[in-house]
C-alpha cells in the first residue's frame, strides 16, 4: 500500500503566533498516525521558488493524509496557521 504525504512549504509571518498553530495541529497528527519526515532544517533552493520552512509528514496512506487535512480539527489549526504564515501544501501519494 502506498503512503500518503503532506508536503508543506511555509514562510512564517508572525513568529510569536506560529507556536499556536503547532499546538493546535498536534492532536491531528496523533489522531491520524502522522510521522514527521522533515520538519524545518537547513535548505538550499536549487531551482524554482522556495520558502524558509519545509515540512514532509507521512501517513499510512493517501486517504488518511487527505482525511487528516480535511478534518474539522485540522481546518481549525489551518486557520491559526493562515494567521501566522503563508503556506503551500500538497497531499502526495508515495511509495
TL;DR?
This protein is an alpha+beta fold.
* Sequence stretches where pLDDT stays below 50 over 5 or more residues: none
CATH topology: Alpha-Beta Plaits
Overall residue-averaged pLDDT value: 95
Number of domains: 1
**Biggest sheet character:** 4 strands, antiparallel
CATH class: Alpha Beta
- Number of continuous helical runs: 3
- Portion in helices: 25-40%
Termini separation comes to 8 Å
Q: β content, as a range?
A: 25-35%
Radius of gyration: 13 Å
CATH architecture: 2-Layer Sandwich
Secondary-structure element order, N to C: EHEEHHE
Structural class: alpha+beta
Question: Explain this structure to me?
Answer:
This protein is α+β, with helices and mostly antiparallel strands and 95 residues long. It has one domain: 2-Layer Sandwich (Alpha-Beta Plaits), CATH 3.30.70. It is 38% helix and 32% strand. The protein has three helices and four strands; from the N terminus they run βαββααβ. The protein has a four-stranded antiparallel beta sheet. It is globular. It starts with a strand and ends with a strand.
